[in-house]
Amino acid sequence: SLNALTEHQQNSYVNFDLFLRVGNMPVSEVYKERYRLKIAKAKMNKFLSIPVILGGGLHYVENVIKGISNNYKNPELLKNVLNLDGMECRWDRIKPPEDQHEILCLLVNSINRNDQAPVYKQILEKIESIYGSHKKRSPISVAGLRLNATLDRINFEMKVKTGTRNIRFFLKRMLATLIGKFYLKFDEEGKRYLNNLVELTDTLVLDGRINTVISGLNKQHNELEVFLTEMESSGLINFGMHRSKESIMSCYVRDRKDQHIHFVDGGDGGYTKAAGVLKTKFGSN
Hints:
Number of helices: 9
Strand order of the largest sheet: 1-2-6-7-4-8
Number of strands: 10
Shape: globular
Largest sheet: 6 strands, mixed
Number of domains: 1
Helix content: 40-55%
Distance between the termini: 37 Å
Order of helices and strands: HHEEHEEHHHHEEEHEEEH
């Protein structure tokens, strides 16, 4: 709910000096402003389905919320206990599955909202022709996963999830991480969880833009950049990209069978750096 998001907003502001924009808007209001929302679902594999959103409605709402001036602390909200059960960030930085691969974070925006479907179809087909299937270009592999049990990492997770210092939480997470290393390596259910984790990794988001993280060779990234630059020069898209040597991952785990999802970003700024490049191009259209 919006209240829970607002609690998380305040916690992030107090503990990390990071202000998260939070807000909402009825779909009817989006339609009144003559923006469209088209929503579908795509099945990526037998474990993972993702939402597909086209139209400019979502980004219109995002821009409205970003324009709202509400960066304040509310002491009453901070009295509530955050409930972020399931959120985890215990993995170390993840190297690409193949030697000499780099991680590419890519954002693509169709200039004409009515052309999103054919434009994005063309780009996704090009990505597939360069890198191969969604699974083949994934930046996450079982071999690359390493649990990070450092005190700083557990302390960070504690602040995110509870907003305060909690010795019980700290000791519980430390013990769980240490046991987890043996569970994932030697237990059959643990091994199955890792294999499912790779399948349930969200590396492609279609929310009115293309947001994707890709593992590939430098020459493959160069080929894609040339293709996108040609489309940009033709006035079809704007894009931003950022390359790094590793990726980072956070997780939402309800159980370790099939109720878990994993979110990936590139290292060294990832999507944030790509978004910075994209923003510089908006005023040039």
